[in-house]
From TrEMBL:
This is M20/M25/M40 family metallo-hydrolase. GO terms for molecular function: metal ion binding; peptidase activity. Signal peptide: none annotated. InterPro entries: Cyt/Met_Dipeptidase (IPR051458), Peptidase_M20 (IPR002933), Peptidase_M20_dimer (IPR011650). One of its GO terms (biological process) is proteolysis. It comes from Alkalicoccobacillus porphyridii. Keywords: Hydrolase, Metal-binding, Protease. It holds the Pfam family M20_dimer.
Amino acid sequence: MSLKAIDQWVQEHAEQSLEQLFTLLRQESISTQNKGMRECAGLMENLMKEVGLETKVFETNGHPILYGELESTIDEAPTLLLYGHYDVQPPDPLEDWVSPPFEPTIRDGRIYARGAGDNKGQIVAQLLGLKAYLDTFESLPINIKVVVEGEEEMGSVHLPEFVQEHKQLLQADLVYTADGPSHNSGQPLVVLGVRGMLAFEIEIEGAAFDNHSGNTGNVVPNPAWELLELLQTMRDQDGKVLIDGFYDHIRPATSTEEDLLNQLPYNAKEVGEKIGFPSLQLNSADYHRKLTFEPTFNILGLKSGYLDEGVKTIIPSKASVKIDTRLVVDQDPKDIFHKIEQHVKKQHPTAHVRFLGSMDPSRTPVDTAFVQKAIKGVAHSFNQEPLIQPSLGGSLPDFVWTKILEAPSMLMPYANFDQRNHSPNENIAVDNFLNGIRCTAHVIHELGS
C-alpha cells in the first residue's frame, strides 16, 4: 500500500483527530500547582490505549509517568521511542487571553489553548501518526515505545530516576521528540540537541525590617543596591559572564555543525516581529550561534522594597534575584552552580544562594545512522529536505536519553514558530498539527524500510 494512503487517512480523520486533541486541551494540567494532573494522565492513558499501545502507569514521588509499547512482528526490528509531556504552564495572566485557556478555540486556522503547542498538540500528533500507520498498513515495521511524563514544565524532576531504573525496558535505537517551535521560515526543522539549564536565587538581607529612608538613611545598608553591585561583578556590559571557569569544558562546534548553522535561513526583520522585538539587529551567523553554541546568564526577576502605586519612603530589608542560565555541551550544571556559589561568597559573604533546578545539555551527532533514516522520513513527508539545527535554544530533558539511556535522540518540532508557548494565546496551526500526524507515520515507515 502506498504512503499516499496516510495522507488520505489524515484528511478523513481530521475532525476526529482535532476532537481527540481538544479532549486533552480542555483538561487543566498544571504540574507546578498540581491542578488536574491525575485527570489528564487518565485521559492520556485512554488515548494511548485507543491508538493500540499496551499501556502502564508508573507512579513517582511527583506526577505519574505513562509508558506504552507495541511490538512489530518482524524479527530484530529497530525500536523507536516517542517522548512527550502532558503537563502545561500556568495560563496567567488570564486577562491577556482572547479566549479561555482551557476551552480550545479555532481562529484563523489556529487552535488556541494552553498546551496546544507545548506539548499536548505535538505528542497527540505523534500518537495519532502511529494510529494512522496501523490503520493503513495493519502492522508495524518497527517496535514502538512511548513515554509521556507530567513534570517537564517543572524540570522533569523524576524522569532521570525513571529512565535509570527502567533502562532495559526503554532500550531504543532512536528517541524521537516533537516539541518546541519550528523554524521561523516555516520549513521543516530537525534539532539534534538542547541547551541545558541551571536556575538559582540570590538573596541579600539588611536590617531586620524595612526602615524609614530619611531617619536611617546612610546608616542602614540598602540590600537592593548591594544586590545590583553584586550582579555587576557577574556579567559585563557585552554579556560576557565574569565567573571564574564559567566557560570551561564547552565542546567546540564541529565543522559539520558550523555548516548546518550556515544553511539555516534567517531574516532579522521577520524574526524580530515574531518575537516582539522589531529592532533586532543580529546577523544570521551571530543569531544562530548565540542560540545554539553559547550559554546565557539571564535575570528572571528582581524583588525588593515597595513597587505599588505612589511612594513609600523605605530602605528595604531584603533584595533577591532569580537567574537562569542556559548551558551548552559539555557544561555541568552542578559544576557551574558551585562556581557561582564561590563567586558570590567572595564578593558578598553574607548573601544566600539557593539552587532552584537544573537540566543537563545534550547533543547527538548528525551522522548517526538512525538519525539519517528519520531525516529521510521527514523529507518524504514534507516533500523537501528539512533544515538541521545542532541544538535547540531552550531546554528539554534530552540528556536522559543520550546520557542515561545512551541512545541517539532527535527533535522534530511540529508547532509553528509563533506558537507563543508559555504565554497567553498559545496556539498550534491546524495544518501543523495534521502535518505532525503525517510526519510521524512517514518516519515510522522510513525507519522500518
